[in-house]
Structure formats: C-alpha cells, structure tokens
Amino acid sequence: MGFFSEYKTVNKLLSQKKQVIVYAESRHYYQYFKKLVDDLLEKNVEICYITSDRNDPLLAKSNSKMEVVYVKLMLGFLFSKIRADVMIMTMPDLGNFLFKKSSGVGTYVYIFHAAVSTHQQYRAAAFYNYDAIFCTGDYQEKEIRKAEEIHNQQQKEIIKYGYPLLDEISSKISVNNTKPTILIAPSWFEGCILEICIEELLQQLAKLPYNVILRSHPEYEKRKKKNFKQVQQLVNSYPNMSVDTMPDVLDRLPSTDILITDRSGIALEFAFGTDKPVLFIETVLKQTNPEWRKLNIEPIENSIRSEIGVTVLPVQLNQLEEKIKELEKLSVGFADKMQQLKKDTFYNCQEAYNDGVEYVLGKIHKG
C-alpha cells in the first residue's frame, strides 16, 4: 500500500465517527484484544481495527462485522483527528510523542499486553493520558494510584479486568508426544538474552535432547533488525532449532515444555497459563523508568520471580542441564501452587472480564 492509497484510507476514516476503534502496532498485539473484540461484535458493536503491520492476517481475512484497515505513514495525523466513542490500545505513552490524543475520541482505554507492573518496565508517564486502564490485578491498581498521587495526576478510571489470555492459554494445553520443546523468549531491552548470551545459550542447548525454538520480541525485531538477522542465522545453523514466526503466544506456549526468558512478561503467561515453572537467565533489570523506586512498591515481575521458576547467571550457562533438573523437581505440586497464586494475583475471573465489556458498552453513544 502506497502513500496515496493510505491517504484515501485515512480520509475515509475521518469522514465518520466510529463506535469503537482498536489500534494494534503489529499483528502480535491482536491476541490481547481478541476476546473483547469478539464479544463486542456479538453485541453488534461497530468496530474499526487499525493495524500498522502489512502482514497482519486480519487484513486478508474478510469479516463483515469489523472494518480492518492498514495505516502507518499517516498514523500521527490520523491519531490527532480521529473520532470515536471509544479507542482501545495496548500502546503506552499516548500523547507523549508522535501519537497525540484527539478531541474527537470520547474515552481512551489501555489494555495490557503483559502482566508486569506499571512502573519499572514502562516510562513514568506511560499511562497519564489514558482515561481508563483495564488492570490485570490489584498490584497494578495500587501502582497507578500511587503514581498519580506522587505526580499530582488526575485519577483515571480503573477497571478490574484481569488477564483473559491466561485462561485461553490454559484451554489450549496439549500433550507433546514428540521430542520436548524449549522456547527461548526474551524481552527487548539492552541487557536481554539476545544481546548478552544467545550464542553461549544455543551452544549449551545443542548438547541437550530438545527441540529449541526462539521467539523474539516484536520490538527487538523492529529496533535491532541487523542484530536479529544475525541471531536468525545463528539459530538456523543448529539442527533441531528454529525461529518462531507465529504472531500469537497462544500458538506456541501451550505446547512448550520449558520456557527460557530474562525479564519478559511472557514468564507470567507461561507459569500461570501452563502451570509449568520458568527458567530465568538472571540479567540486569529492565528499567525503562529509572525512578521506579520512588513508588516504594516492588514490581510483581521481581517479587514473584523466585516463586515461579529457577534462575541461572549468564556466566553459568554450562550448568544448564542441572538447572533443568531443578525445574523438574519444582514441577511437583507446582500446578496447585500456581492456581492459588493466580487467584491471589489477578482479577482473572469472568465477572471481572464482564466488567470490562460493560464498561466499553456504557461509553458507546447509540444512534
């Protein structure tokens, strides 16, 4: 799609007000909206889905209930002029950089694409300009309220939404009858696995009887294209190793036996979705907000780490086989432990999710 084609698309979008607009930076993020979108469509809500990914499968899928469009070059202009009752995103920093708020949008809703805390891995002002935050658990609500108090911010609406993806992962668990699978799924900060120890990690894994799949973060692929290409070549040089190209974790986590990660939120999705422990490579913290300690609240991804897995230092990857044996020991009784911890951590129940659906419905102006 060229500039003039996109220009026509944008002008068409601006010609009428929408009930609900959903925006996804890439095809990887639709999975976090899907359940909500499906249920809103069932209630005859008019939804326009905007993606900035040419390879988004929804662009090729005909759905008479939902308008699907691609916009990238003119996205900044579109954001400032668009009109809708509700705009739903999983993109932080609305209004802080290129993508400004539009006076034509009634309510901006943020949905999390990771169940991590709000103050360490996100910028301090990441959520300031949203009207409503669909929180995964009360830990996020406490963090947001504390940040609002410290920075003299007006209180946003907090919706106790939960994290529906966990139940979807659980429902798709499958028995792996082939060689067991290890999934390497790092985050995308400077100290991530792909930056500091991927070569050594693959060398050690090559000695073990597993299929190994690397799932990179979409932001890493976007920001470190040259590095990612080198990583791909490295992975493909080993037998029984491959790079995951599927956009949704739902297509990968349920059939994964062991997850190896660093500071990625996928650790929570794996532990609570599959009831299996995580193997963490103990990297430096992912600190997008250098002043996160001002809240005096320990981020959930730090405090829960020792309860959901075991760790290994990057310089001790020669101990990988022993660490995997530790995982096997930890697996005994782990599912029951995760079920209780899940209840204690998340608003992950149907009632909470329904509150999110009703919230959106209540913001739509009929007629």
Q: Can I get a quick summary?
A:
This protein is of the alpha/beta class.
Quickly give the structural class: alpha/beta
Quickly give the CATH architecture of the largest domain.
Answer: 3-Layer(aba) Sandwich
Count of all domains: 2
Rounded to the nearest angstrom, the distance between the terminal CA atoms is 33 Å
Tell me the overall shape.
globular
In CATH, the topology of the largest domain is named Rossmann fold
**CATH class category name of the largest domain:** Alpha Beta
Taken as a percent bin, the fraction of beta residues is: 15-25%
Let me know the number of strands. 13
What order do the strands of the largest sheet run in, or round the barrel if closed?
A: 3-2-1-4-5-6-7
Largest sheet: 7 strands, parallel
N-to-C SSE string, H for helix and E for strand: HEHEEHEEEHEHEHHEHHEEHEHHEHHH
**What is the count of DSSP helices, taking H or I runs of 4+ residues?**
15
Q: Can you give the mean pLDDT? A: 94
- Stretches where pLDDT is under 50 for at least 5 consecutive residues are none
Radius of gyration using CA atoms only:
21 Å
Written overview of the protein:
The chain has 367 residues and is of the alpha/beta class. It folds into two domains: 3-163 and 348-362, Rossmann fold (3-Layer(aba) Sandwich); 168-345, Glycogen Phosphorylase B (Rossmann fold, 3-Layer(aba) Sandwich), CATH 3.40.50. The protein is built from 15 helices and 13 strands. It has helices at residues 3-14, 34-42, 75-81, 138-150, 165-171, 193-196, 198-205, 218-223, 225-236, 266-274, 300-303, 305-308, 320-330, 334-345, 350-362; strands at residues 18-24, 47-51, 66-70, 84-89, 105-111, 132-135, 157-160, 181-184, 211-214, 241-243, 258-261, 278-281, 309-312. Strands 3-2-1-4-5-6-7 form a seven-stranded parallel β-sheet, sandwiched between helices. Strands 10-9-8-11-12-13 form a six-stranded parallel β-sheet, sandwiched between helices. α2 links the parallel β1 (18-24) and β2. α5 packs across α10. The two termini are 33 Å apart.
